[in-house]
Specification:
Blueprint (H helix, E strand, L loop, with lengths): L2 H11 L11 H8 L5 H10 L5 E4 L5 E6 H13 L7 E4 L2 E6 L3 H11 L10 E3 L4 E4 L11 E5 L11 H16 L25
Antiparallel strand pairs: 1-6, 2-4, 2-5, 3-4, 3-7
Length: 202
């Protein structure tokens, strides 16, 4: 077993002692499946366990890239009232929500059709022909700007489609316009990474 996957396995045993979301070996294999030569990506992670990597979108997943605070509201809605979410990462002050392939093309049209386009902050929808930078699966000491919030933990994770993401965007936009205090599943920023009950994921 390579060093990186040994680290991942050891991290599983320590999961109850940390709030950091960590990728399992099966989750790492799913991420690597996005590229034409998955073994090369896995080899990179073996030699550089804390290195982020650029992955193409459109085959294994699409990514909806949103401002961090709006993304938090989307996740609040998905976990409090909806079906949960797929893997989620943060990078450079934005939140990357991994979604089913095809979502990047369909979601903007749905937002316009439902006339919510002007209520939702600019979304960057990454699909076929795009690529995103994701944190390393073994990166347990990542800075707040680049980390896994909900880490992939299976070879075939459930991924929300465009309708689910539309629903989450609408809920988040409505929450933004409400002035009354809201209860959030997110702890204060100084408490480190957020943790979700991934057993609810489909």
């Amino acid at each position: 077993m390579s060093d990186v996957f040994s680290l991942l396995r050891d991290s599983d045993r320590d999961r109850t002692h940390t709030q950091a979301a960590e990728v399992t070996p099966a989750g790492a294999a799913w991420l690597a499946s996005a590229v034409a030569y998955p073994r090369s990506t896995l080899s990179l992670w073996e030699s550089r366990p804390v290195a982020p990597v650029v992955l193409p979108c459109g085959s294994a997943f699409d990514v909806v890239n949103v401002p961090a605070m709006f993304g938090r509201r989307m996740l609040d809605a998905l976990w409090a009232e909806g079906p949960g979410c797929g893997p989620v990462a943060t990078h450079r002050g934005r939140m990357l929500l991994f979604t089913a392939p095809g979502t990047a093309q369909r979601l903007p049209s749905l937002l316009d059709w439902e006339e919510w386009g002007s209520e939702v902050p600019p979304l960057l929808c990454h699909g076929v022909g795009d690529a995103v930078t994701v944190p390393s699966p073994a990166r347990t000491d990542a800075p707040a700007g680049a980390r896994w919030v909900v880490a992939p933990d299976t070879r075939h994770p459930w991924l929300p489609g465009p309708e689910v993401m539309l629903w989450a965007c609408v809920r988040a936009a409505r929450a933004t316009s409400v002035s009354s205090p809201r209860i959030s599943i997110f702890p204060p920023a100084d408490q480190g990474a957020n943790v979700y009950d991934v057993t609810r994921r489909r």
